[in-house]
């Protein structure tokens, strides 16, 4: 069942100069189905209210700040305006902050310009300007439009806890399953991104060719992941590691190094998110209590469908 999640949105600004603008912001938040809270509920200049304000910020999912040409009432203790204190506190709590700053060329009443605090206001605007989400506005309608669009985007790409009706809340079992699926989805997205970045930056054939090992006993003994991969492909069906070493003409004294190389090769394939291209599994009679080299020599290589596709691309070019 779809749960209509509502978010609590804290709205911060100076008050007297932005009354109509705040009304438009509150309306825009309500039209999105969320819960606006802000300084209308408090006297921001009253020190006894600061703890209450912080508690409302703590319980909010998002924080909006609207700035024009007033810096606002200053807290004697910090030397900052209460608006800037709210902005800093929201950032300290990790609450996503969205900034909406008046365009410098927008017309504005002279009696709503605070000239004495211009340096502090400019510094505050510069701080807000470094945030991930900031928009400039010149009219009330433009401000409301930016609020609606930015908040909608933010809730989509950065969802928060929010609120739902008690009758719609998921059971603990459902919540646990959703958390598990969400974690799995993040893992798969990260894997997909890694594969996409790899495919964009370097071709698979280059990866295979440029992954090289050299024997410590004989530097002339060099093996690339491409040689190993192609040897496995050409030795099908189901060759053992010993069969692959014979195809590559591995001398007896180098075979143990080769088996270790194969082990490293598997790790490299896994790191490149290519392990599903080649599968290796032990034969039933591999046995226990024998040397690493002998045990590894009895392991069997099988190509997956993806492995066959890659072999075809290397041999004949992209399909």
What does this entry show, briefly?
The chain has 319 residues and is an alpha/beta fold. The chain is built from 12 helices and 9 strands.
Helix content: 40-55%
Rounded to the nearest angstrom, the radius of gyration is 32 Å
Beginning-to-end CA distance, first to last residue: 44 Å
Biggest β-sheet: strands ordered side by side in the sheet: 2-1-3-4-5
Q: SSE order in H/E notation? A: EHEHEHEHEHHHEEHHHEHEH
Average pLDDT across residues? 75
Structural class: alpha/beta
- Tell me, briefly, the overall form: elongated
Largest sheet: 5 strands, parallel
Low-confidence stretches: 198-202, 269-276, 282-293
Q: What's the β-strand tally?
A: 9
Count of alpha/pi helices:
12
Strand content: 5-15%
